[in-house]
Amino acid sequence: MSRRTIPGPDVLLCENCGYVLEGLDERGSCPECGKAVSESLSMKRVGSPWQRRPGLGSWISTIRMVVGRPVAIWNVVSVEPLRAAYLTMINIVLACAGPAIAMLVFSLMPPLHNRDWFGAALVSFLATWAIGAPVVSGLSLIEYAGIRGLAHVHRWRVGHVAAIAICAHASVAWLGLLALAIVPLFAIEPDWMISIVSTREESRTLAAFGLVLLLCAIWYSILCGIGYKHMRFANAPRAVQPQPPSGHTIEAPRAGGGGSGDGQ
Length: 264
Ligand SMILES: [Zn+2]
What we know:
The chain is mainly α. The chain is built from 8 helices and no strands.
């Protein structure tokens, strides 16, 4: 059985089933699934608030959209790489600042004040950065690679740019690490946690870090999964005239299939 070809990024696809819509009347419907052609046009993907106009206000609006409408947002996220990449960097840097600041504050708490408090705070801050940033970045890269790999298996058109856009908006989940700013509070009245973990202050704090990191990673993965499904045939913005219909045809996405062209 030959494998179905994945159309290039400039080929207009039905965003529901992946049928090639090039050359069809925009007022018509997808011959495969019946979805209106107009609903698959790239102009329908207006971009998240951040993608439309990067700034503090749009960043907050994008976070609110991802949190409040974790499914609907993927209908507007645009297949573009640059602003999405900035969104990823900002979210990861801020997310790692949370644990680092928490460790800094924790180092100043009474249980540790017999140490060189400034040195302990500084080392904790830097160590948390040195560990947190690579961990979060690494998990993000793993998710990106997973999306690309799955797309190849499913024969879905989720290329490099689409995967970046998905991971960028899902990176809002990492901001949950800011919850670690309350970790020092546990150092004040730690009885319940001590009984669970250990009698050591550091173990208690690390357990809290690990738990929050795990929850954020799960949330991030869920968001990526929803985005991956909803953007499986997303059409990228067109800066130039649409290309003429390609010579090859594809079957509905569920057909087994083959070539390449995954070059978004
Ligand atoms: Zn369709």
